[in-house]
Structures are given as structure tokens and as C-alpha cells.
Amino acid sequence: MIAVSMAVLQHATSIPLARALRPRSCHAVSAPSRKLSASSPSRATHVDPHVLLGMTEPELQQVAVDLGQQGYRGKQLHHLIYKRKIKDIQEFIQLPQAFRNNLQEAGWTVGRSPIYQTVTAADGTVKLLIKLEDNRLIETVGIPVEVEKGAMRLTACVSSQVGCPLKCSFCATGKGGFSRNLKRHEIVEQVLAIEEIFKHRVTNVVFMGMGEPMLNLKSVLEAHRCLNKDIQIGQRMITISSVGVPNTIKKLASHKLQSTLALSLHAPNQKLRESIVPSAKSYPLEAIMKDCKDYFLETSRRVSFEYALLAGVNDAVEHAVELAEMLHEWGRGHHVNLIPFNPIEGSEYKRPYNKAVQAFAAALESRKITVSVRQTRGLDASAACGQLRNEFQKSPLRIDSNPSQSESDIAVAC
């Protein structure tokens, strides 16, 4: 979806971020293995067949009952998956061996995928490649920020698709093509993978990794519920980013989430936006701005506008003035995140000089637009969205494939 270097760290940090994510697939479910009772509030929720991760406590209780166990065993499953974060059913030693065996015989898995590659930047940013069950690779990024009193804020930048179909001109993910949507557990597991690497609780989640979240809104919302209710990350600590897909902002607003919508704008007028974001042709800027205004009115949550600064393309003071005028025309509740372009291999775009970035920001501030400039992170870890994956995978890995390069051998994309 949005290029990593242009990802917003809303709530998380004043730092741009790389895109990332992590999934895992599942098997077909046999009829008896998991029927939910009609009274279950989770009945309407899609459930990934035979994958425990992402399920609610009532759903896990139903799994236990379907396998002849007492309902409280489902509560134990919930604790083991979300609190203890155990990856393998046979490691659920608090459960009877017979129950563990029955789970496996029925085809159940926890739904955690292996980490295929890890790259750590000098600034502490860590990018992971996660190998899904179908041997596709996805990216997820952990961004640590030290806050007052020695505490750490840890942001997970997660992917929502394998690749991205929108092909924004500045984005490495689009250059790698599109394979499929991620399932809810494949999104959730990315957060758990970041926690495992850092040995620290994730405090913020941004859907700014590979893919366009609005094109996979069903799974994104299910993962959002799990992250909030089961993993207990506050809704206001979660940001859903989009380059703009018709009719989806209204749909998201109808759920009245307290999370932030980050709209990747990148231009102050329709003509320039179409040259940067090809999909903009089907979603005029005026329609996007109206939907963003309605989102604010519906949720009382301001919209954050992501603006990737591309040298000589959209970074002139005149562009800033035009942007300010457009935002004022559509009312209040706006915030602009300026993201200096994170260079990617083969791109015609350049990163603007700091002087140009500061002049752009000053022009917005002088016109009473709230603005922040993202400090670039992870430049030495292929941090731009899709960069690391593109180095390793153009098509699914062979079943027997293993990483052929050590971390020190990975080429730096900048």
C-alpha cells in the first residue's frame, strides 16, 4: 500500500516508518470441528478455519466444547495464546494431553508463522520477513522509541496484503506485485512477532505496511478487534492508513472506532495526485475530502494526512499553500504528517533537502495547519515498504527453501 518511508506513525512516534506484516494460512474446516452456538455474539465474525489465533474467548470456548471439553478450557486457550503467547499446541502444558492431541487431530494450529529474515538498523528499527504457510513473504517493522523515564514505546508497522495492487509510483511494495489478502491471524501474528523480537510489549500499531488496508477491510477490522480486545492495545494507539478506496472510508466510519484514519494524500490537487497515485483517477480529491470530513463528524477523530515529500515534484512552498487552502476549505480536524521520501532502488524520485522540508512545514504552520515532520528510521535496514521482500522474493518460495543469505549479506537499498 503506502510506501514505507511515507508511513505515518500516528500516536506512535514522530518518526516515519517502514511497512511490514505477518501472516499464516489455514486448512479447510470439517463441519463438526467448529460450530458456534446461535447465541454466540461472535457468530457473525469470520473465523479462519483451524487457526486459533484471532479467535475470541467465546469462540475458543466453543472449540473446546465441540471437542468434548468443558467451556473453561476455552478460557485457558485464550490465556495461553494471548497472554503466554505460546506458538505450538503441544506446548499448552496446562491443558490435558488428550485435549492437545484432539486439537491437532482435528487440524487446529495456533497460527504463528516462522520468521524468515531479520534485519536491524543502527537506530534500533527491526524489519522482519515472515514466511507464511503458502511460502509467501511479508514484512513487518518494529520501531522502538525511548520516552521519558527510560520507558519505551514500541510501534509495530503491519502489512494487510501480500504485495499491493495499487502501484503508487513511489512505493517499493507496488513494484513487487500483488499476491493476496492477509487473513486476520496473519495480521495479528505480526504484532506478536515484534513483541518476541524486542521482548517488550507493543504499545502502538500502524497499518502502514505492505498492502492497502481498505482493500482487505474485513480482515483488518477483525484483526483490529483482536489487537484491541484480546491483546489489549488501546484503539487510540492504532492507526489505519489508506491511499483512498471509494466507499471504504464511510464503511470504516460506521464502525465508530476510536482509532486514527491516516489518509495518504501526497498532493494538493487532483492532477498532481493522479501522477503520483494512479488509483486516484477513480477517487477524486473532492470526494476523498468529503469522506474525510464525514469521518471526523461521525467519529470525532481527526484525520491525519500523510504527505510524502518528493524533491521537485510536490515539495514547493506553493504546494504547501495550496494544501493549506484545501484543508481549510473542508473544515477542521486535520493534521499533516510530512514524510521526506525514503529512497528505493530504481525510483526516479529523490529525497528533498532539509531546507525544502522545513520551508514546506513553515508554510503550513503559518496558515494554522497542525504539522509534524517524520524523522526517517531504518534507512540501513531496507526500511521502505516492500524493499526487503523484493530482495528475497518475486514469487512464492519453494517448500524446502531456506534463507541463503545471512543478515550481514543483505544489500542495503539506499
TrEMBL record:
GO terms for molecular function: 4 iron, 4 sulfur cluster binding; metal ion binding; RNA methyltransferase activity. One of its GO terms (biological process) is rRNA base methylation. Residues 150-380 form the Radical SAM core domain. It comes from Acer negundo. This is Radical SAM core domain-containing protein. The keyword rRNA processing applies. Keywords: 4Fe-4S, Cytoplasm, Disulfide bond, Iron, Iron-sulfur, Metal-binding, Methyltransferase, rRNA processing, S-adenosyl-L-methionine, Transferase, tRNA processing. It comes from the Eukaryota. Its cofactor is [4Fe-4S] cluster. Its main location: cytoplasm. GO terms for cellular component: cytoplasm. SUPFAM superfamilies: Radical SAM enzymes. Gene3D superfamilies: 1.10.150.530, Aldolase class I. It is found in: Cytoplasm.
